[in-house]
Amino acid sequence: MPTSSSTRLTPLLTGLAFLGTLGLGDAFAQTTAANTLTVQVNKPGAPIQKTMYGLFFEDINFAADGGLYPELVKNKSFELDEHLLGWRGIRGAAALTTYTVSSQQPISATNNHFLRMTAATASPDAGFINEGFRGMGVKQGGEYTFSVYLRQGPGSVSGLNVILEEGRAGNGPEAGPSGKVLAQTTITGLTSAWKKYSVVLKSSGTAERARLKLTMEGAGTLDIDVVSLFPKDTYKNRENGLRTDLVQLLKDMNPGFLRFPGGCIVEGRNLTERYQWKETIGDVASRVPLVNRWNMEFKHRSTPDYYQSFGLGFFEYFQLSEDIGAEPVPILNVGMACQFNSAELAPISGVAAGGPNASSSHNHEDDDPTLETFIQDALDLIEFANGPASSPWGAKRVAMGHAAPFNLKYIGIGNEQWGPQYLERYEPFMKAVKAKYPKMNIVSSAGPSPDGELFDKATQRLRELNAEVIDEHYYAKPEWFRQNVGRYDSYPTTGSKIFAGEYAAQSVAIGSPDNKNSWDCAISEAAFMTGLERNADKVVMASYAPLFAHVDAWQWTPDMIWFDNLKAYGTPNYYVQKMYSTNPGTTMLPVQRGGNAKNGEDNLFSSATADDKTGEIIVKLVNYSTAARPVTINLQGVKKLGKTGKATILASNDLNAVNSLEQPMNVAPKDESFKVKSSNVTYTLAPNSFTVLRIPGKR
């Protein structure tokens, strides 16, 4: 039954008196006071940069080929070191008299291998099957553009039979038996010269592991090259576009930037295997593939068939950045191979402060590049992104279909290098870029560890060189993230800013194949990010890593977005990142806790911003405890309060909870409204929860 205020108050006072006799009264009062947060709306801090929360893409875990880049044919041009990788002769190619990968009169100098098949007699088994990337994902009613270059040889081969069929589980030494036919056609009109043919296949069914079967119609010899099966359903329906559902997951995050193409992929295990952006633009069929440096890095997840086709190249990265509204942040090799591998170094010679002057075109024939080669690549990249059509590299961008500049503002010099070898290369590199492009913001590296002598020396020297942005990385246990929420509180407010370029909580250990994208990891990252937001005057960029992983072809865990050949899902970590990036606000607001409690004390974490565009105060709260927690938020100096706020809650009672393809929304945000009665807003946080409150009120 209802009771009066005095009736309710009496047992509370009695209880406090009893606690006092036990010496617990002060502790109880302090805990209660600590649940009061004062958001100083009338004392705004630094602006929240547009780049505050973004994305880091690296081609690991089949993130590009077999993932974001939706080409279904593996090794379409037979240019890999193992020329028939991904291809299998039907029943061991028994119906073929001979087959070989030849380079006799190829399509071009860069695409100089092709498959030559010869059959003495006509047979429905005279051909090959391509397995795709752990199979080919096709959808019922989906349309797929098949294209190929063919050349008719001696004999009476009249056509090429193209069959899209359901595959079988596993990858045996030969391709067979055949599965259900999903689409088929025959290409005719062959000539004795190379000619490109194209046809659209419409699938009659859905299959996660389909495969492509190509057989000769008739007997004789047929040359085949640049075999492609590409979905028509791509983002913005582009001919060489990207996988729609994966791009949409990125765009939904409202990212401030896209860092690409890595990561250690930039460095290569040696300099010959380094990423060279100039080899990834222009005609897709002419882009020379390269081994992926992650293919054999981990013995527990060896992936010898992992190559980069570069169908997703630098032009496509810039285009993707534009599509999702993110600033492009390309990272370039600084003349160092991965220090965890060969640590090969390009010599420093012939580099003046102003940098090289001659514009080079391609580097694949440069066996002994000096630092000058890498610097010139950077200068040419900026011209490619921002230069006019009258410039050599700007003209190449325009020829690819993008007349307007990409408005590149950031460029990274080196990925995750450390030690004096990096700093002695960084300095002339930086000076050369600044001499020609003084307004370019340069991202520099503090190394792979967030502390230690090498980290300290790099940070000190980079600050002395007035580096705009210093990239810090940290992979650690979940508790590290909660314990280091105040990491940037003592950083200087002037000079170099911080890019938290790679971070992710590791549930087991760094690099362990048993790591999970658990709620414990995600909520710990959410807690840490309150410290990033509270220090928006020092931290201007942040991104989780890695971004993507194929469920059947990963090398590293944990990862933010998982996918198979047909479906994808966001992890709890994805939703934490999304809640931050879609609720950034425009201005940081100081937050103080009652009882002089620090951020994170008693496992309560908080940050706040003002959104001057919408007229709202945004408060982010993490309750890392098994009990619900009532909080009072004092909006000091707020103006024009509204009556109804919006809460977005991400919570689970199970810290080991994960999402999956079968349960993609097991841990996912839920929205609810709440009443705002005064500038003292009360709200009860769910156990083990990350909550974003949007309160209508102006500063």
TrEMBL record:
Q: Which InterPro entries match?
A: Alpha-L-AF_C, ASD1_cat, GH, Glyco_hydro_b, Glycosyl_Hydrolase_51
Keywords for this protein: Glycoprotein, Hydrolase, Signal
Keyword Hydrolase applies: yes
- Where does the Alpha-L-arabinofuranosidase C-terminal domain lie? 501-689
Q: Where is the signal peptide?
A: 1-29
Task: Name the EC number(s).
Answer: 3.2.1.55
Give the reactions, separated by semicolons, that this protein catalyses.
Hydrolysis of terminal non-reducing alpha-L-arabinofuranoside residues in alpha-L-arabinosides
Q: Give the UniProt record's GO annotations in the biological process aspect.
A: L-arabinose metabolic process
Family per record: Belongs to the glycosyl hydrolase 51 family.
Name used for this protein in its record: non-reducing end alpha-L-arabinofuranosidase
Species whose genome carries this gene: Hymenobacter taeanensis
